[in-house]
Amino acid sequence: MPAEHDEPGERENPADVGDAVDRMIAEWARRDPDLDASALHVIGRLLLTAEHIQRKLVSALRPLGLSYGDFDVVNTLRRLGQADGTNPKDLARSALITSGAMTTRLDRLERLGLVERRGDPGDRRGVLVRLTERGEQLAEHALTAVLAADEEFLEPIDGAQRDTLTATLKQLLAQDEAR
């Protein structure tokens, strides 16, 4: 039942209602009134936002039979677009994972028929990885699904808000990457 002050059909804007971060900060204020937890207003929301986005992306990829890690590998290969393939170490660096973890992902993707490994003509000891035709098609479908999930998540904010958020996050990342 709507509150007395609500007009018929009117809904509260979710942004105007306290969220999990507000509740956490209020709990800290009760527990330790002298604690300056103001950074949690931003950091807590960044962490929760990343968690929510990750769940949406996993849900978008599930019908395609891909994990987020699988998606990362096939779309890195697709983005790089090297006809001969890409070195697994370069892929691991791009995905920010160990070469061992990359090997596990590549083994799975190879079993699924999405990637193939070939000897590196420039290095007899090396291997290059490339997408199969099936992998190329699935990577394209997966990217479309992920971008649709991204758009759905960002739907509540307009273009100007996106631009401001992008600039602010870019500033934070650039400062941290420069260290």
Radius of gyration: 22 Å
Q: Class of the domain at 66-144 in CATH?
A: Mainly Alpha
Low-confidence stretches: 1-6
Q: Can you tell me the CATH superfamily of the domain at 66-144?
A: Winged helix-like DNA-binding domain superfamily/Winged helix DNA-binding domain
Overall mean confidence score, pLDDT: 89
Amino- and carboxy-terminal Cα gap: 53 Å
Summing up helix and strand content along with how strands pair, one would put the structural category as mainly alpha
The largest sheet, given as strand count, sense and whether it forms a barrel, is: 2 strands, antiparallel
Topology pattern, helix = H, strand = E: HHHHHEEHH
- Name the strands of the widest sheet in spatial order: 1-2
Total helical segments: 7
Task: Count every beta strand, where a strand is a DSSP E run of 2 or more residues.
Answer: 2
Shape: elongated
CATH topology of the domain at 66-144: the name is: Arc Repressor Mutant, subunit A
Helicity, in percent? Answer: 55-70%
At CATH level 2, the architecture of the domain at 66-144 is Orthogonal Bundle
Report the β-strand fraction as a percent range.
5-15%
Looking at how many chains there are and whether they match, the oligomeric state comes to single chain
